[in-house]
Design goal:
This protein is an alpha+beta fold. Helices cover 36% and strands 19% of the residues. The protein has 18 helices and 22 strands. The strands form 6 sheets. It has a 7-stranded mixed β-sheet with strand order 5-4-3-6-2-1-7, with helices on one face. A 5-stranded mixed β-sheet has the order 8-9-12-10-11, sandwiched between helices. A 3-stranded parallel β-sheet has the order 18-17-19, covered by helices on one side. A hairpin with a 5-residue loop joins strand 8 and strand 9. Helix 7 runs antiparallel to helix 8, helix 7 runs parallel beside helix 9 and helix 14 crosses helix 17.
Length: 613
């Protein structure tokens, strides 16, 4: 058996790193700055252990400068620095991690705060550079300063240099394809995007005149204990991070140390458009280094409606630190986040019901969408979902269907046990208070109640609840077949009235019924079968059907006009009956242009007949 060592050709590896390792070219700045931050972190750990000494008054920081004339972009740190031997180990050996080597030498230092793991970040510079130079000086006493240079191919040069200060300077000679990175404004925007929470100050265009301002926040609010944060700080952090000047309604501070480390803040923003689910932005960080927005592997889809920041050092990233590796750890993190959000909502419901109801308009879409998408979330908050009734009062569903569940009765038949299933309670709902105002009035006059479902997600949500509670509740829109609910008394159908209206309307698909309703002011209403209407609306959504659904015209025999219609001449019977049908149609839906034109013509004929008498 023959054994050997696998060899990697740098000539073949570099094109892969340049083109395929990173999802976005501008990530190179994040990687180079992160290396500088790591160098400072390592040195600081050595100072803490007594292995090194910090210069008095020295500020740990990373400085970035742009020189358009020489077409260079420079990133400099005052961290641990490198010896010539370390340069050859960490730079010339691709995927040899300086961070891992440091931790193996100084185990007691711990890995907290150290970003690098894979030893590839430095080479991202070649995505925008023709060549790169490194000037570095180690913290070790007597170590000579070193200069390394390479055009990113298979060769490099290494020599002594006159650098006096401890630390490392990366000089990138920007290629023509990367000339956008020779703009100081562009570099500042990238620092704010990728490095806004890194733990040491980052300066762009440092002048040293005492007026320089760091572009990052070294101790972001989410890194503090929730007990140390004020409401004002939470609001200011939200505004600064998301550029949203509408204060959030409330927030959840995440702070977990075991079994994994995770810190963050999730904000519930004010809803700007109540008929849409607006996508928020959840920023994911690892050791205060920005990874990406809205990573679906760790942030459930429904939580992406929120704005927030999550920092998890234990999160499993791929080598480019751009994507997650979906494993059990990620799933545990996701479940933790869902639980914390559910706990916050439950706490608000129980401890400040007034605020919960006040915020419901902003929370409803988020909560309902979350229930549909995540069964665990539904199980945790199903009892705090509230519904607004016709009087504007909020109630949980149990108050509409009865909180005392019917006990299942068992009876024996043919030697087998059978359970008597309880019949689901019908809950009526309104989808458009203005359009369905006539039906709302009928319900109120009859002492009946209904819930308001006026956002686009509600049709999906009530179907979801019916699926979850099939033996307890069924929903019917207020203009569905509500004859039983509005019935004023038993009586035989009036076939004469039915014929008058059928002949007047002239629609073979229209079903006509007579009924004595409690409210005599309404001459007629139109109803439709609930489930046929839902099916039709679903078909319209997918472009499969039109809106021609079978309707029923319910004639109110207690209405005085209806009571006198038989006494009119045939011509007037037809005119009045058709007008009553049009009025019922207006209460049911918006008229089409043809229906509106016909209604106007009928109205003019009625006025003409009235003025002639």
């Amino acid at each position: 058996m023959k054994e050997g060592q696998i060899k990697i050709s740098s000539e073949n590896m570099m094109p892969i790193i340049k083109k395929w390792l990173y999802s976005d070219k501008d990530i190179f700045l994040r990687e180079i700055v992160a290396n500088g931050i790591d160098a400072i972190t390592k040195f600081n750990k050595l100072v803490t252990m007594g292995e090194a000494t910090q210069t008095e008054g020295e500020e740990y920081c990373v400085k970035i400068s742009v020189d358009k004339k020489s077409k260079t972009l420079t990133v400099e740190d005052n961290g641990i620095g490198m010896t010539e031997e370390e340069v050859e180990n960490y730079i010339t050996q691709i995927a040899f991690s300086g961070a891992s080597d440091f931790l193996s030498k100084y185990e007691k230092a711990g890995g907290d705060g150290i970003i690098g793991h894979f030893g590839l970040g430095f080479y991202s510079a070649y995505m925008v550079s023709e060549s790169v130079e490194i000037e570095t000086k180690s913290y070790k006493e007597g170590a000579a300063a070193v200069k390394w240079a390479s055009d990113g191919n298979s060769t490099y040069s290494i020599d002594a240099c006159d650098r006096e200060a401890r630390g490392t300077k990366i000089i990138m000679h920007i290629s023509d394809d990367g000339k956008e990175f020779l703009s100081e404004d562009k570099i500042k925007s990238l620092v704010k995007k990728y490095c806004s929470f890194m733990p040491y100050n980052i300066y762009v265009g440092f002048k040293g005149d005492g007026k320089d301002e760091a572009l990052n926040t070294v101790l972001p609010l989410y890194a503090k204990s929730p007990k140390e944060c004020t409401d004002e700080e939470y609001k200011n952090f939200y505004t600064d991070t998301f550029m949203d000047y509408e204060p959030p309604i409330f927030w959840v501070h995440l702070d977990m140390d075991y079994p994994f480390k995770l810190k963050g803040i999730l904000y519930f923003p004010k809803v700007k458009n109540k008929v849409e689910l607006e996508r928020g932005k959840v920023k994911l960080y690892c050791n205060q280094v920005f990874i990406a927005d809205n990573i679906k592997e760790v942030i459930p889809e429904f939580l992406m409606l929120l704005n927030g920041v999550i920092d998890c050092p234990d999160i499993p990233l791929n080598v480019s630190r751009s994507f997650l590796q979906n494993d059990k750890q990620v799933q545990r993190i996701t479940k933790y986040i869902i639980k914390k959000v559910a706990d916050k909502l439950t706490s608000l419901y129980k401890n400040d019901r007034a605020k919960y109801e006040e915020c419901w308009g902003d929370l409803a879409n988020f909560i309902k969408f979350g229930c549909i998408k995540e069964n665990d979330f539904y199980d945790k908050i199903k009892d705090i979902i509230i519904w607004k009734d016709l009087d504007g009062n909020y109630k949980p569903l149990t108050e509409f269907i009865g909180s005392d569940e019917k006990e299942e009765k068992e009876e024996k038949a043919d030697g087998e046990e059978k359970k008597e299933e309880s019949k689901p309670v019908t809950v009526y709902y309104v989808s458009d208070m203005q359009q369905q105002a006539q039906y709302v009035k009928l319900f109120k006059d009859n002492g009946l109640n209904a819930i308001c479902c006026d956002t686009f997600i509600d049709p999906h949500f009530i179907s979801f609840i019916e699926y979850k509670m099939p033996t307890k509740v069924k929903f019917m829109r207020i203009d569905a077949d509500v004859a039983g609910a509005l019935k004023g008394g038993d009586e035989a159908e009036d076939s004469v009235l039915i014929d008058i209206f059928k002949n007047a309307v002239g629609d073979d698909r229209l079903t006509v019924k007579t009924q004595a309703l409690k409210n005599a002011d309404v001459p007629a209403i139109i109803t439709v079968d609930e489930y046929m209407r839902r099916y039709s609306e679903m078909g319209q959504f997918y472009g499969m059907t039109d809106d021609q659904i079978a309707k029923t015209l319910v004639i109110n025999t207690t209405n005085p006009i209806v009571a006198k219609i038989k006494e009119l001449s045939d011509e007037r019977q037809k005119l009045v009956a058709k007008h009553i049908f049009s009025l019922a149609l207006i209460s049911f839906k918006k008229l089409s242009p043809e229906e509106l034109s016909e209604f106007m013509s009928g109205s003019m004929l009625l006025l003409d007949k009235y003025t002639q008498d």
